[in-house]
Design brief:
By secondary structure, the chain is α+β, with helices and mostly antiparallel strands. The chain has a single domain, classed as Jelly Rolls (Sandwich). Helix content is 28%, strand content 26%.
């Protein structure tokens, strides 16, 4: 039985040469089952950096104002947990990123928040953008921010948030200043650089 072909095939010509080749397409394009070892190897590669965040590559390039090769280089560095530096806030690690011209003068990072971390209430003297790649958090306004979400805060805005307890939250960050609003955290931020 010959497969049902689209109408355009009959319009390919009277000699039938092109049409005959098209009739082989279903057979050539038939799915085949990959061996389990191949599937496992492919899944491991896709789960590792930099491919883990491949669906977000264009948006990362935009947030950090960097070309693809630079974003990929940042993600390669992120493979090493030691590339993230500790901060005065327990559970917060930063990987410094040299952003492009549009974000010049801003603090640009790949940020890792520990599961369950409570980020203290703070004010934004300038704009801030957090682009979540993995994990999630709940903002003090009640907004839930998860993978693929961009949380943009305008100058003068104020908030705090809590990271989901299930997994760390990884985000691309561009911020133009931050001022903690609580007395003890302001004091701590002045004592610890």
């Amino acid at each position: 039985m010959q497969p049902l072909l689209p109408e355009f095939v009959s319009e390919l010509g009277d000699d039938g040469g092109d049409a005959a080749a098209v009739t082989l397409l279903p057979e050539l394009l038939a799915p085949s089952r990959a061996p389990d070892a191949v599937k496992l190897r492919l899944l491991a590669q896709v789960d590792a950096l930099p491919l883990r965040y491949a669906p977000f590559l264009d948006r990362l390039m935009d947030v950090w104002d960097l070309p693809e090769r630079n974003v990929l280089a940042v993600l390669e560095r992120a493979k090493d947990p030691a590339a993230f530096r500790k901060t005065a806030l327990p559970g917060l690690r930063l990987l410094d990123v040299e952003g492009g011209p549009r974000v010049a003068g801003a603090d640009v990072h790949l940020v890792r928040f520990a599961p369950g971390m409570r980020f203290p209430r703070h004010r934004h003297p300038g704009e801030e953008v957090l682009f979540v790649l993995e994990g999630s958090y709940a903002d003090s306004s009640g907004r839930h921010v998860g993978p693929g979400d961009v949380h943009a805060m305008s100058a003068g805005s104020e908030h705090g948030f809590r990271v989901s307890r299930e997994e760390p939250c990884i985000a691309a960050s561009v911020q133009r200043g931050r001022e903690f609003t609580g007395f003890w955290i302001r004091l701590l931020s002045k004592l610890i650089p």
